Amino acid sequence: RDRDGYWAGQARGSGDTAEGVAAFLERRAPRFTYTAGPSA
Number of folded domains in the chain? Predict the structure, then answer.
Protein backbone atom coordinates (compact mmCIF):
# COMPACT_ATOMS: atom_id res chain seq x y z
CA ARG A 1 0.00 0.00 0.00
CA ASP A 2 1.29 3.43 -0.94
CA ARG A 3 1.26 5.41 2.31
CA ASP A 4 2.22 8.70 0.70
CA GLY A 5 -0.59 8.41 -1.81
CA TYR A 6 -3.08 7.46 0.88
CA TRP A 7 -2.27 10.42 3.13
CA ALA A 8 -2.07 12.83 0.18
CA GLY A 9 -5.59 11.74 -0.74
CA GLN A 10 -6.75 12.23 2.83
CA ALA A 11 -5.29 15.74 2.88
CA ARG A 12 -6.88 16.68 -0.45
CA GLY A 13 -10.27 15.29 0.49
CA SER A 14 -10.56 16.79 3.96
CA GLY A 15 -10.49 20.51 3.17
CA ASP A 16 -7.90 20.97 5.90
CA THR A 17 -5.17 21.67 3.35
CA ALA A 18 -7.07 24.69 2.06
CA GLU A 19 -7.81 25.79 5.63
CA GLY A 20 -4.12 25.53 6.54
CA VAL A 21 -3.07 27.66 3.56
CA ALA A 22 -5.81 30.23 4.22
CA ALA A 23 -4.89 30.46 7.90
CA PHE A 24 -1.22 30.92 7.02
CA LEU A 25 -1.98 33.69 4.54
CA GLU A 26 -4.35 35.40 6.99
CA ARG A 27 -1.85 34.98 9.83
CA ARG A 28 -4.30 33.23 12.11
CA ALA A 29 -4.55 29.87 13.81
CA PRO A 30 -6.04 27.17 11.57
CA ARG A 31 -9.41 25.61 12.36
CA PHE A 32 -8.83 22.03 11.27
CA THR A 33 -11.76 19.62 11.12
CA TYR A 34 -9.92 16.31 10.63
CA THR A 35 -10.56 13.54 13.13
CA ALA A 36 -8.73 10.23 12.97
CA GLY A 37 -10.79 7.23 12.02
CA PRO A 38 -10.57 3.79 13.67
CA SER A 39 -7.72 2.67 11.38
CA ALA A 40 -5.50 5.73 11.93
Answer: 1
